[in-house]
Amino acid sequence: MPTELFAVISTVLLLSACENDKIPEELPVVKDNVSFALDIQPILSAQCARCHNPADVAPDLRKGFAYESLLEDGKGVIPGNAEESELTEMLEWAKTSDNPMPPTTPLSPLNIALIKKWIDEGAQDN
Ligand code: HEC
Question: Fewer Cβ within 10 Å of end Cβ, the chain: N or C?
Fold first, then answer.
């Protein structure tokens, strides 16, 4: 294959790979009454706790500890206001955050929408 063609194909593949990491402007609409225990903690346990635990980095996002660490330490959750919460910015990392979380791949749009809804509904321990 000619080098130029190879370069073009590689660029296209690279660009489409980046495209997949983008968070869509419109997140999915999620149900009301999001539950921290049933909806949010499982996301944190699966996607965050392997790094966020006492042996590694704060906040501790393991089951039984995540709620308090997220709210107590003022880690960017403003109950009732997902838009202004720093956590939102971190999760929508493909846009602008300089501290994207998780660092390697963004959460699914559905999971981001659930966490934002939970914050907007008052970030309750429910
Ligand atoms: C691969 C490891 C890893 C994963 C997975 C991960 N984080 Fe992090 N997180 C870090 C590291 C390292 C820092 C510290 C970054 C720094 O201070 O620059 C951090 C910092 C943070 C902070 C800010 C703490 C502070 O003191 O400002 C929050 C909040 C956070 N992560 C939330 C999350 C959430 C929520 C998830 C899951 C959706 C997640 N992280 C997944 C490694 C990870």
Answer: N
Assess whether the C-beta atom of 33 lies below 6 angstroms from ligand 1: no
Q: pLDDT 10s per residue in the chain (126 long)?
A: 566 655 555 554 444 444 445 678 889 999 999 999 999 999 999 999 999 999 999 999 999 999 999 998 666 999 999 999 999 999 997 566 788 999 988 999 999 999 999 999 999 999
User: What is the distance in A from the centroid of ligand 1 to the CA of 4?
Assistant: 40
Q: Write the residue with the smallest CA distance to atom 8 of ligand 1.
A: 101
Sign of CA dihedral 33, 37, 38, 40: positive
Closest ligand 1 atom to residue 47 Cα is 37
